[in-house]
Amino acid sequence: MRIAVIAHLKHAITEAFAGGLEMHTHLLTASLRRRGHDVTLFASTRSDPALGVEAICDETSLLGTGVAEANDVAFFREHHAYLRLMTDLRRRTFDVIHNNSLHYLPVSMAETIATPLLTTLHTPPFCWLESGMRVSRGPVRYVAVSDATAQMWAHVAHVGDVVANGIDLAQFPYQAAPDASCYLVWYGRIVPEKGLDMAIDAARAVGLPLRIAGPISDPDFFENVIRPRLGDDVVHVGHLAHSALARLVGGARAALCTPRWEEPYGLVVAEALACGTPVAAFRRGGVPGILDPHCGALADPDDVASLAGAIGKALTLDRAACRRRAESHCDAERMVDRYETIYREMVAAAKPQAIIPGNARAPAASVAMSAA
Prior knowledge:
The chain contains 14 helices and 13 strands. It has about 375 residues and is an alpha/beta fold.
């Protein structure tokens, strides 16, 4: 199939990944290309050229440097980039378009193109995307990354499918035993909604060192809330590439996941399980759907004492059970299989039907395809 993948433009789709959405888009695109599909990734500059990238905009996270009203500049650049793309797609020949952008324009302009459009919902509802979905008159098919995310969007649009995000299990190899040095791990974007401060407090409550990995996406939060908590027992090791991150996570006694928001899926949970590392996490969003009592322990949201108790439980869990859970529920190959099936269903539904002899009118699908 000829597949267009629309990425968001905040960050490049390349390693080291700024976050889970960048990793997901990279993994999905690369997997589809390995399976022989002709895939074009519409993304920001500096994205991985091996993905068949057509750059449509600079990374908008970089546009604020030395620019007054940077948020407005980024907004308009993204708006015009997606406007140009959706206009251009009217003249391009793809079998299906997979929208991972989180932007309102691809869904609100879906009716202007003949190609079937699939949109994956990676976040809880927010005003811009929700408004685009509400005004959309196009035949958009929606997929959510977890049952919890599907339920959050149910008041906006029909979400017909749930396709859990997957990870490349080979990039997070199983480590049967943790490192000799006993430590916990927390990793992800360092922003308030990820709750790193509570992870630090819980680690200190149980008396175990904590190693932190991830980009400092909110410098003010890091300087004012996180840096004062750092010390010999709590260390930020930086933003790591896959191989170094897998070693760090695999060597930990447990991984902590502490979202302050309704985490749509929880890729860090899947990655930790693949390494054989049990997880202690707040009971939020899609995270409970990944864990079971054999591989993780859930804590009451925003409750440091409850999280400390969950850490104690996680330390007793079997690492082999964690890996088995990842293999059965988090394998990217299963995710790509499911998306391929959805693509084929959409392509088949979009094909013009044969005109029955004696009928004066062609079916609507046939007329639409002819007009395109």
